[in-house]
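Weekly sync, protein design subgroup
Attendees: M.S., D.O., the rotation student, P.L. (late)

Item 1: inverse folding check
M.S. brought a backbone from last month's batch and wanted to see whether the design step gives back something sensible before we order anything. D.O. pointed out we never logged the input encoding, so this time it goes straight into the notes. Structure tokens as presented (256 positions):
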């Protein structure tokens, strides 16, 4: 299976949120493929991230480490200019950005626990950063084929919300889904071979989920490498006809 539908040559890929968890696992998996030319590994401290440095030692110039805080739009603009001086087209961009209980965000259980700081932190990372990443990389996604995927979460589905709680995380992921769906309509006009996807990787053993893993059913907590491969499998299967849609790690479409 090709990395993305209709890909005939080797791909240039950018991963934002690449230094740990699923992002790092995706980088490692992609670098193991013969159809990947180069991986741009982006995070706030990519140049000092142990896992990325290990990949760079093994894969040399196929790994390009770039420091960028995706919550800073000027930094995203600089990143896009820098990548554009070397690469005229990105075949695949994946955002693994997301916070639940870090950096001012909170997994609220009730309305009483809501505060503006937590809401702003959640939306800045979970919704605003991925769509601004797409905005600034858009000139590099104008050729055929191209896929932009962002990791969302099943709890961002309004129709699937039966338990409540996690106000800012749920709402920010729902906002991300709407932003991606809207962008998919614009990209379809600019590049009919472009695909925009929201993907739920499953509950994965990362810093984001660690405080809440006691409630995860047996067999439903995934290692980052497994989640990464599920994401990659989805990318190979979902093309322009599915652009603007929301999918789970198991290949099942998720309702908005």
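Designed sequence read out in the meeting:
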């Amino acid at each position: 299976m090709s990395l993305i539908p209709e890909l005939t040559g080797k791909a240039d890929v950018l991963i934002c949120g690449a230094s740990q968890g699923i992002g790092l696992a995706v980088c490692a998996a992609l670098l193991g493929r013969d159809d990947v030319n180069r991986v741009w590994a982006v995070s706030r401290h990519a140049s000092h991230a142990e896992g990325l440095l290990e990949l760079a030692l093994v894969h040399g110039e196929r790994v390009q480490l770039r420091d960028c805080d995706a919550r800073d739009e000027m930094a995203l603009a600089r990143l896009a200019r820098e990548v554009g001086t070397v690469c005229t087209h990105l075949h695949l961009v994946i955002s693994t950005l997301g916070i639940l209980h870090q950096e001012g965000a909170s997994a609220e259980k009730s309305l009483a626990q809501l505060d503006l700081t937590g809401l702003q932190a959640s939306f800045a990372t979970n919704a605003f950063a991925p769509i601004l990443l797409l905005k600034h990389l858009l000139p590099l996604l104008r050729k055929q084929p191209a896929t932009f995927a962002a990791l969302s979460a099943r709890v961002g589905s309004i129709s699937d919300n039966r338990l409540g709680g996690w106000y800012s995380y749920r709402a920010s992921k729902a906002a991300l889904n709407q932003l991606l769906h809207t962008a998919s309509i614009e990209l379809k006009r600019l590049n009919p071979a472009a695909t925009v996807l929201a993907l739920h990787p499953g509950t994965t053993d990362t810093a984001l989920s660690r405080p809440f893993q006691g409630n995860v059913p047996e067999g439903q907590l995934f290692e980052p490498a497994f989640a990464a491969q599920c994401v990659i499998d989805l990318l190979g299967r979902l093309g322009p006809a599915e652009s603007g849609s929301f999918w789970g790690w198991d290949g099942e479409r998720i309702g908005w």
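Discussion: Helices lie at 21-31, 50-59, 73-86, 116-137, 167-190, 224-237. The radius of gyration is 17 Å.
Action: P.L. to compare against the previous round before Friday.
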